[in-house]
Amino acid sequence: MTAFEVNFDGLIGPSHNYGGLSDGNLASATHAGAVSNPREAALQGLEKMRRMIQAGLIQGVLPPLPRPNFDFLVSAGFTGSDAQIIESAARSAPHLLKTAYSASNMWTANAATVSPSADTGDGRLHLTTANLSTMLHRSIEHPDTTATLISVFDDEDCFAVHSALPMHPDFADEGAANHVRLSAEHGAAGVELFVFGRLAGESTTGFPARQSRLASESIVRGHGLDFQRAILARQSAAAINAGAFHNDVVCVGALDTLFFHEMAFEDTDGVLGSIRQAADGLFELKAVMVPRAEVPIEDAIRSYLFNSQLLKTPGDDRLVLVAPIETQEMDSTRLFCEQMVSGNGPIGRVEYVDVRQSMRNGGGPACLRLRVVMTESEIDACHQGVLLDDEVIDELQDVVRASYRDRLAPSDLADPKFADECRAAREQILGVLDLESLA
Predict the structure, then answer these.
(1) I need a labelling partner for 272 at 20 to 30 A (CA). Which of 35, 73, 169, 432 fits?
(2) What angle do CA 266, 268, 271 make, to 5 degrees?
(3) In sequence order, what are the residues at sequence separation of 6 or more whose Cβ sits closer than 8 angstroms to the Cβ of residue 294?
């Protein structure tokens, strides 16, 4: 069956700021407290989406979530008018105010785990919203994310949207950032790779291992996948403690190709062997491993070489890697990419994109998108307002230029007027996307 990979990018919201809220995310910690530029961030993201359309791909967008999250602040004990709640939180609990304003839902790779209809038992496309329970600022996202996904994928004959797993450490789930689907073609049955950092009930040292094996197993069951074609692999503890807080910081895959760092998995040979066994009769795995002798793990994480989009674009015989410009600026990763594409391997071209505002908070091109493999009928059945063309991108950019600030310091979050700005900007975005029901 013919199917297409549709990338749904998160539109960066007007409250994009460097709050330093993400333990284990080195970029987030490095830039904590810096002045951000929400306008530039959103425009950079939209230009990346435009490039995907110009490359002949289908591109979607998901709107920002409501910020600040007043439900969260009220649950933390703040009362009164919106202005009183913000002023009180800014005075007595600024960390909670930064949490309520977090724009981290822009990284839609963490929004959900997606299994296409070619893999599922009931022949529907399944999405499970990630609970993101490890980090406070992300754990508040899932109710609004689920509502958004239901609005976009609202035809129950085609789609099954599952609510987040239980909010308990044993079920910690980070979405597609720890999931890779491999197949001969997008519409063919495939192998789904689920990467976890710890077992249920297991304690780890160093940076938090955010994905549990139980969460991954639960999604396999909930999506009706065949366990013979669902591989559960353990992420390297050394990679996590080096700053690879999600597997997509050290690994990315597309179609029959897995591109990964030598330190991505605890048992690389075992993982590759399991994939090859599960793929027998479906496709032949093409594994591209980057040796740490050529690209140290520290360089891989600083450059976000693997937090890139790996795409099959019309007119290209080989895959294209869409990498952040930081990958080009680092000697080791640039040289590796040059050598890689000069050979005859599955990756034939590298394109560099500027998403610096996102990168400073720890999210590259791959973080900004949720990959959804869809048939033509499923594309027709989803909400059409979120499928982009140049005209819609122009409209969104007009909203961003008119309503987003070009300078936002953490102290600006204490201004109650900023909450009104965020609300008004989001309402305009929802209007462009015909999603007013989410306002």
Answers:
(1) 169
(2) 100
(3) 332, 335, 336
Active-site amino acid positions: 174, 246, 367
Integer Cα distance of 348 and 369 in angstroms: 22
- What domains sit in the chain, N to C, each tagged with a CATH number? 3-67+102-438 (3.75.10.20)
Burial class (CB in 10 A: 0-12, 13-18, 19+), 55: middle
For the segment 180-190, what is each residue's pLDDT rounded down to a tens digit?
A: 999 999 999 99
At 326 the three-state DSSP class reads helix
Residues in Cβ contact with 115 at an 8 Å cutoff, skipping those fewer than 6 apart: 125, 126, 181, 192, 219, 223, 225
- Per-residue pLDDT tens for 147-196? 999 999 999 999 999 999 999 999 999 999 999 999 999 999 999 999 99
